[in-house]
């Protein structure tokens, strides 16, 4: 892999990990276009770490509140705000468990493939979900009202993100909106939920690090990681602005032509 190709992979990973257009689908397209069968496992893991760092930076205030509330809860000093954040932690754990069970189950039973035709079709499905979520009247539920129902719906939605072409962020934000959450809470909950999802994806790759197939040099590695981090940071900030304004459907204007082109030409 050349330095330019590594930077392109990092850029695509960073942009599409958070924008509701499916990172796995775009990487599958890129591999198909460039003829790559395998990408370095180390490279893949570090790209995930780079995008995870972007999430931690953007949501650092909320994450810090969650940590402090957990410490206060352990010490028996939790106030009303702490109790809300402790409840949020429990709901994140519930959604994560549901995602893991569903995602692993789908992967083992159906072995979701990166078939380009299927990926292209699922791009169009994602576009439809985004359009529907933008037409739904915003709910009034904040974190105080967040409960088991909303967490289950979002966890199931994230589990469906195992399919390349289905956007994890798009389907989870939409699920939160469909469940009655305010747009901003639906967006933030989706990305807080992304932390264990991205971390888990990276950890699952670690046993494969001994496989040197698709090795990559130092410069391409640095360029890819940097591109993933900075593009991820920018795209995450941009997306949260679009979530608040209810404009996720804008991405359907990109996904539908992309899906049609993939069905016809690839």
TrEMBL record:
GO MF entry, a single one: undecaprenyl-diphosphatase activity
Pfam families given in the database record: BacA
GO BP annotations listed: cell wall organization; peptidoglycan biosynthetic process; regulation of cell shape; response to antibiotic
EC number per UniProt: 3.6.1.27
Location within or outside the cell: Cell membrane
Family the UniProt entry places it in: Belongs to the UppP family.
Function of the protein: Catalyzes the dephosphorylation of undecaprenyl diphosphate (UPP). Confers resistance to bacitracin.
HAMAP family assigned: Undec_diphosphatase
Additional comment: Bacitracin is thought to be involved in the inhibition of peptidoglycan synthesis by sequestering undecaprenyl diphosphate, thereby reducing the pool of lipid carrier available.
Name this polypeptide is given: Undecaprenyl-diphosphatase
Species name: Salinispira pacifica
Gene name, Swiss-Prot/TrEMBL: uppP
């Amino acid at each position: 892999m050349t330095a330019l190709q590594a930077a392109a992979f990092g850029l695509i990973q960073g942009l599409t990990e958070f924008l509701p257009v499916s990172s796995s689908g775009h990487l599958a397209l890129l591999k198909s276009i460039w003829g790559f069968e395998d990408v370095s496992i180390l490279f893949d893991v570090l790209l995930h770490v780079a995008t995870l760092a972007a999430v931690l930076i953007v949501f650092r205030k909320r994450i810090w509140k969650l940590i402090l509330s957990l410490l206060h809860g352990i010490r028996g000093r939790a106030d009303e705000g702490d109790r809300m954040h402790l409840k949020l932690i429990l709901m994140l754990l519930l959604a994560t468990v549901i995602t893991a069970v569903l995602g692993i189950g789908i992967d083992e039973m159906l072995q979701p493939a990166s078939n380009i035709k299927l990926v292209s079709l699922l791009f169009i499905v994602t576009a439809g979900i985004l359009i529907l979520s933008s037409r739904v009247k915003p709910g009034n539920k904040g974190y105080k009202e967040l409960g088991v129902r909303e967490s289950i719906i979002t966890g199931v939605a994230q589990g469906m993100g195992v399919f390349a072409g289905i956007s994890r962020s798009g389907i989870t934000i939409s699920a939160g909106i469909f469940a009655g959450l305010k747009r901003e809470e639906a967006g933030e909950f989706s990305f807080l939920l992304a932390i264990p999802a991205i971390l888990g994806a990276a950890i699952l790759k670690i046993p494969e690090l001994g496989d040197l197939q698709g090795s990559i040099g130092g410069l391409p590695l640095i360029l890819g990681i940097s591109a993933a981090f900075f593009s991820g940071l920018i795209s995450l900030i941009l997306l949260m602005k679009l979530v608040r304004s209810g404009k996720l459907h804008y991405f359907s204007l990109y996904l539908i032509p992309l899906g049609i082109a993939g069905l016809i030409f690839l």
